[in-house]
Design brief:
The protein is 12% helix and 40% strand. It is mostly beta strands and 241 residues long. The chain folds into three domains: 32-113, no CATH class; 114-175, Alpha-Beta Complex (Type Iii Antifreeze Protein Isoform Hplc 12); 184-236, SH3 type barrels, CATH 2.30.30.760. The strands form three sheets. Strands 1, 2, 3, 4 and 5 form a five-stranded antiparallel β-sheet that branches. Residues 6-14 and 23-28 have low confidence and may be disordered.
């Protein structure tokens, strides 16, 4: 009988699933720990639409304001403090207690950007038209200058002189005028499907899409027109499309 009991016990221990430990349940994070995790995830989601890659860290743990005791506390992401995610910024959250709004809370983060930016290979004077050979792509890690460029935009020139090694940013640039003051302009007067073209004289300069002041040839009347190309502009008459 004793031998039989031993055999039965051995069979039970060897049966499928007999030695398996119960599955571990996910560990629930404390509210403020979960909030920091959510803030990092929200920042990464926003960074997905930007060039390059980002890494983020929490620089200041959030402080929970005084709220009524009890109930279930939840957080809903609202926005980031600025579009540029390099350097210091914060993510704002709406707080809800049992589904009811109870205020706002923020998580302070620091972002590090990793990518390539354009640097000037030599000193360049103002009004230099942008050319590939004048700049080189250089690896950059950290918080890039606001408006830093990773490729050359078409139709721009330097607004100010820059020094060797300078990181190119949008504020360094200005559009290249294709209409210059004192030059003749072919002006298209548009009213619905009717288009009349006349010659006018430019009294200001402008790039494509910008407005310039033109002088009409016979009346010498000035009007505003939109530049459409080199030496060309367009204006809508009242009731035109």
């Amino acid at each position: 009988m004793r031998l039989l009991r031993i055999l039965c016990l051995t069979a039970a221990l060897c049966a499928p699933g007999a030695a398996q430990a119960p599955a571990e349940e996910p560990v629930a994070l404390a509210p403020l720990e979960q909030l920091q995790t959510d803030a990092l995830g929200y920042a990464q989601a926003q960074a997905a639409a930007l060039s390059g890659s980002y890494t983020f860290r929490v620089v200041k743990p959030p402080v929970l304001p005084r709220i009524p005791a009890g109930g279930k506390l939840s957080f809903e992401p609202a926005n980031v403090s600025r579009h540029e995610l390099g350097g210091m910024f914060f993510v704002s959250f709406r707080m809800r207690l049992d589904g009811r709004p109870v205020g706002m809370i923020r998580v302070d983060l620091e972002g590090t950007w990793n990518g390539q930016l354009l640097r000037a290979q030599s000193a360049l004077p103002r009004k230099t038209v942008l050319e590939e050979g004048a700049f080189e792509l250089t690896a950059f890690h950290g918080s890039p200058p606001v408006g830093a460029l990773g490729k050359l935009p078409a139709g721009y020139r330097l607004r100010t002189p820059i020094s060797p090694g300078h990181i190119l940013v949008m504020t360094d640039l200005e559009t290249i005028p294709v209409v210059a003051a004192g030059e003749p302009v072919r002006l298209a007067l548009v009213s619905g499907s009717l288009v009349i073209e006349v010659d006018a004289l430019a009294r200001s300069s402008g790039a494509v899409g910008e407005k310039v002041r033109l002088e009409m040839p016979t009346s010498h009347r000035n009007l505003q027109a939109v530049v459409t190309g080199p030496g060309e502009a367009r204006v809508l008459w009242a009731g035109g499309n």
